[in-house]
Amino acid sequence: MLSACAELIDEVGYDGLTTTLIAERAGVAVGSLYQFFPDKRAVVQELTLRNLDRFVRTVSARFEQLELEHWWDAVDAVFDVYLTMHREVPAFSRLHFGDVVDLRLLDPSKDNNAVIAEKLTGLIAEEFGLDPADLLLPLAVAVEAADAVLHLAFRRDPAGDRTLVAEAKELVRGYLSNRMPDGHPKDLPSPR
User: Fold this and answer.
1) Is residue 113 packed enough to be buried (19+ CB in 10 Å), middle (13-18) or exposed (0-12)?
2) Within the chain, what is the greatest distance between any pair of CA atoms?
3) Mean pLDDT for all residues in the chain
4) HSE of 111, CA atoms in CB hemisphere, 13 A
5) Which among 11, 14, 64, 99 is least buried, having the fewest CB atoms inside 10 angstroms?
6) What pTM was computed for the model?
7) pLDDT at 182
8) Which phi-psi region, left, alpha or beta, contains residue 13 (left: φ > 0; alpha: ψ -120 to 50)?
9) Which band of pLDDT confidence, cut at 50, 70 and 90, is reported for residue 164?
């Protein structure tokens, strides 16, 4: 049902989506869908949570594969995972992390970008032996800034305007270089 939902979102968008369409595409009765989901929002919420889990698992795996030397390598890896998902994961380019549907779709007690920032804080703190309390605010600001610029990049080009993606990386790296705890390099190479 979630895969059917993702396909339909790519075709008709969230506004055109109905539980009947999801059930038909999934090859199940509408009543079967309602056994698991009370409405289309709940289906989309579950799809978005699945995408969040995929994002976190992929970022974590990338951190392990790359043997990151510096924090900015982690930032680049996060960008790369997000961009790949935006281009390849059904419905991700239309939903992102649910902000199109509800700014609190991932967690009713906090906005979607705060959830993303918390997940990234945990991953980066663990990878570099940092105190999560030192990272949470800077990463929350970085996620908000990156989100805004990446939205612009994908509005200008469905594949993500490369110049704007580079600007987003530059913006985040420059901001974080002034916020990283002592002992972490502040001079960083340009992502261009």
Assistant:
1) buried
2) 59
3) 92
4) 10
5) 64
6) 0.90
7) 63
8) left
9) very high
Which residue, 105, 112, 92, 116, is CA-closest to 45? 105
1/86 Cα distance (integer angstroms): 20
pLDDT the model gives residue 95 = 92
Looking at residue 99, what is its pLDDT?
Answer: 83
pLDDT attached to residue 20: 96
Q: SS in 3 state form for the chain?
A: CHHHHHHHHHHHHHHHCCHHHHHHHHCCCHHHHHHHCCCHHHHHHHHHHHHHHHHHHHHHHHHHHHCCCCHHHHHHHHHHHHHHHHHHCCCHHHHCCCCCCCCCCCCCCCCHHHHHHHHHHHHHHHHHCCCHHHHHHHHHHHHHHHHHHHHHHHHHCCCCCHHHHHHHHHHHHHHHHCCCCCCCCCCCCCCC
